[in-house]
């Protein structure tokens, strides 16, 4: 073969490289996660997540206009409630933080897709993702509340719901509740393979959702398992999920690849808080080129098979891509 075949030939200049590039990263792929809190004119930086904020609804509206104007298709909203309780009842209240935020966004920022996270950990006093019974999360009692939460978000105007609690059967329960409520056209993005990961550290600071006791290994997946992710994804698909998500992304590229090849469904990758903050911290110390590492990281998720990336880098990426186009 050698020297007839020379792999370097097609790497010789920029235009050749452009022609044979297999994967692309586009602003169309991005969803920006945002944190909303009560109050007015609040924009408080989350110390472990530079450039990310706790925002009151008025500030959130402004931020979302910027995000829309950058061409980013959508956001996913996380709420910081004024008060927590044992069951997380703020999540299905008409006056809950998410419901109020969604109503404001739908009114003031048309043209931006508003996705809501369906979970309880930010809203429960104990920090677990559902109703506690004898020290563990009661699956079926939690399902009832999940349905109430999803319906309430849809009524407020959410364009899509994304259950992240990892209860068994939740996608089916949400689909049925939405359909019964007249929301047949609201899609579900299921956090199908959500691992019990240490990469969520900064998010838990941001959302004040670290479990007071114990951890989430009783419901989130064991990082050692791959086949189990396929079973989770298959169940979610059968229960009516429209998008399958893998979370975290960077240490789980094999899972993204497998879910994509196995089901040919739209696949989302959640580039989680720890993945984001590691890059920011290393870049701030001058150890890496933060922008280049960000682009390479997200490209690897696309290459693995992700169609959609949820990332705190969404605005940064959109800006880099816009600069390149000029
Ligand atoms: C649960 C939820 C979490 C994240 C998204 N939804 C935290 C958890 O499971 O502990 C993590 C996101 C991130 O780390 O960026 N509501």
Your description of this structure?
- The protein is α/β, with parallel strands linked by helices and 326 residues long.
- The protein is 40% helix and 17% strand.
- The chain has eleven helices and twelve strands.
- The strands form two sheets. Strands 1, 2, 3, 4, 5, 8, 9, 10, 11 and 12 form a ten-stranded mixed sheet that branches. Strands 6-7 form a two-stranded antiparallel sheet.
- A hairpin with a 2-residue loop joins strand 6 (132-133) and strand 7 (136-137).
- Helix 7 (227-238) packs across helix 8 (253-263) and helix 8 (253-263) packs parallel to helix 10 (290-304).
- The longest helix has 18 residues, at 139-156.
- It is globular.
- The mean pLDDT is 96.
- Residues 117, 119, 121, 164, 200, 203-204, 209, 272-273 line the site of ligand PBG.
